[in-house]
UniProtKB/TrEMBL annotation:
<dbReference type="InterPro" id="IPR052035">
    <property type="entry name" value="ZnF_BED_domain_contain"/>
</dbReference>
<keyword id="KW-0804">Transcription</keyword>
<keyword id="KW-0805">Transcription regulation</keyword>
<dbReference type="GO" id="GO:0003677">
    <property type="term" value="F:DNA binding"/>
</dbReference>
<dbReference type="Pfam" id="PF02892">
    <property type="entry name" value="zf-BED"/>
</dbReference>
<keyword id="KW-0863">Zinc-finger</keyword>
<dbReference type="GO" id="GO:0005634">
    <property type="term" value="C:nucleus"/>
</dbReference>
<keyword id="KW-0539">Nucleus</keyword>
<dbReference type="GO" id="GO:0008270">
    <property type="term" value="F:zinc ion binding"/>
</dbReference>
<feature type="domain" description="BED-type">
    <location>
        <begin position="21"/>
        <end position="48"/>
    </location>
</feature>
<protein>
    <recommendedName>
        <fullName>BED-type domain-containing protein</fullName>
    </recommendedName>
</protein>
<dbReference type="InterPro" id="IPR012337">
    <property type="entry name" value="RNaseH-like_sf"/>
</dbReference>
<dbReference type="InterPro" id="IPR003656">
    <property type="entry name" value="Znf_BED"/>
</dbReference>
<keyword id="KW-0479">Metal-binding</keyword>
<keyword id="KW-0862">Zinc</keyword>
Amino acid sequence: MNFLKQFFEFTRPGNNNISGQCKLCGKLYADKLKSTGNFHKHLKRKHTTQYEESKFSDSIPTKNDTNDYSENLTSNVIKINQVILEELIVKCNLPPSIIEHNGFRNFLKMVAPKWKPTSARHFTKTLLPSLLNNVQDKIKNLLDSVDHLCITVDVWTDRRGRSFAGVTGHFLDLEYVPQALLLDFLRLKGPHTGENIQNITIQILDNMKIKGKVYRIITGNACSMIKAYKFGLSVTDIDYTVQDDNKQQQDDDYDGLSEWLLVDWCENNNDLFDKGNDPAKRLSCFAHSLQLTIRDGLKYTPYLSKSLSKCVNLARRSHKSTKIADILDDIGKTINKSNMTRWSSEYLLIKS
């Protein structure tokens, strides 16, 4: 109706009808109250040029309308990309290359037509670093209110031979609820010496500004870890040969290659509560120590070792023979693999 008011002078409606006089030719037209068909027909037939020009200019959004639309569109795209990054790439551990898959883009066209295709490089080079910085800032702000915390340090190697180091912080919040935060996860290049591991740890603690707040450091029993922090366990290397076809699953800090001896790192009872210049002390990871204990127990129990070796050979053959695999599949059974660095795998092997 607002569009027609520039061409007609309307009178007050009565009896469910509305009338209007054309400003261009002076003719009077009437129509039902909620219908404007007669007025549009008159303009199309008698004043085509004026009607089309006015209709076209009316359909063009103003500068403010265009800016508002662009801002809303950009805001929606940013929100969608953020959800893709946090929920799919980070939490679901999907590769960023999924952004460029035709199937994924066709899916988004259906559920979010306003989304614009974005490259995987944009996610890895721009969005992901930005998310990392935001999360690290939140962690730093949270740690500002923490007086003491323990950290766990772990180093491992993936199947491609690349080494990584991870440092996690553990503390009680103001409500006395245990919290665990990943302080940093980075690629570890070069030899895994105690000095390198120590330098990386110090660098992470300095970056988080919590070096003076660390109360205890929890690590595995590898020689490099003990040399890095010089507390906890005294380890002596021994000649021990491991034969296992699944070598790619063995970490470079294999604990079964060492004998261990628990030493007293606490000089006196007051040392536990000393808040002076006493440096943060290292403690051994319970799971790693349990692994060493069970490994030593198996080594000094010959009859059990023989039975376990038979189970390991049976499991190895079941994974290599398609005939045995088909038989196990028919009866709904599987035989777990043994991993020398995880005692629980041998327990599950025997149980299976």
